[in-house]
Amino acid sequence: MSNIQDKVVIITGASSGIGEATAKELASKGAKLVLAARREDRLKKLQVEIQSSGGQAIYKVTDVTSRQQVEELAAYALKEFGKIDVLVNNSGIMPQAFLSENKVDEWDKMIDVNIKGVLYAIAAILPSMRERKSGHVINLSSVAGHNIYPGGTVYCGTKFAVRAISEGLRQEEAMSGTNIRVTNISPGAVTSELLETTTDSTMKAGLDEFYKVAIDADRIARAIAFAIEQPSDVGINEMIIRPTVQVG
Ligand SMILES: NC(=O)c1ccc[n+]([C@@H]2O[C@H](COP(=O)([O-])OP(=O)(O)OC[C@H]3O[C@@H](n4cnc5c(N)ncnc54)[C@H](OP(=O)(O)O)[C@@H]3O)[C@@H](O)[C@H]2O)c1
Question: For the chain, is the Cβ count within 10 Å smaller at the N or the C terminus?
């Protein structure tokens, strides 16, 4: 039996891209999914698709920038399924531009979704995982959490932060003996709706060119499944997954 069977998995940002692909992959391996994002029509459609293939999924409309909504998401998972085994902390946006463009509102949004949203989700699920002495937190960082490039400064900053949060959480849980595993996933270029969050036309044109080599989101979903599938005494802590032909 797969080590994913019957695991309760919350996925933030499940309405498209990597989150949606991960939901489908884990559903096919018997997980009980709690899908979260802001677009209810997408979540409903995905739930129906998963259920009609014999999988299990519920959803809750959630804006991860609202601490209250994220707490309600965790409470809903516990009420419906009685436990939370895995958090796939995946919601993210990437409005890239040079700092000189002064898109301060976009910096705020990136920090709110990519950093604070990730932390709110960890805060919401950690108490129940610690109580059960079992759990797995999977954070979506990026190659941009390892490399810095012009125009990506704030996005890179948020993804470096996610990587720091992953490693800090890993160390703290390891020293506390809670058996909570932490996986930091750093994708390269992946086909999704992420580029649509870049409003700067020059930057968007460059990204469109760079993303010509992008791989499908199900490649990342498979890596996430691999991390979950390992025996509970094994933590896959860091994965960088680029298209084979991606240079930077
Ligand atoms: N695609 C890539 O090349 C790539 C590379 C490296 C890392 N990543 C990371 O992978 C993660 C998933 O991105 P993706 O590529 O799958 O992009 P995507 O297709 O745009 O998906 C992003 C998801 O985040 C959700 N989201 C955005 N703002 C939110 C909010 N305030 N509250 C809740 N959910 C929110 C979106 O749902 P709603 O709009 O419905 O809320 C959507 O489901 C992100 O963290 C991204 O930074 C992606």
Answer: N
44 lines ligand 1 (CB under 6 A): no
231-236: list long-range contacts, CB under 8 Å, 24+ apart.
Answer: 231/3, 232/3, 232/134, 232/179, 232/181, 234/181, 235/170, 235/181, 235/182, 235/183, 236/181, 236/183
Task: Count structural domains, the chain.
Answer: 1
User: Does ligand 1 lie within 6 Å of residue 169's CB atom?
Assistant: no
Which structural domain, as residue segments, surrounds residue 139? 8-241
Out of 120, 149, 155, 211, which one is annotated catalytic? 155
CATH assignment at residue 19? 3.40.50.720
In this structure, is residue 218 part of a structural domain? Answer: yes
Whose CA is closest to atom 43 on ligand 1?
13
247 in a domain, yes or no? no
Residue 18 in contact with ligand 1 by CB distance below 6 A: yes
Residue 3 lies in a domain: no
CA–CA distance, 153 with 99 (Å, rounded to integer): 7
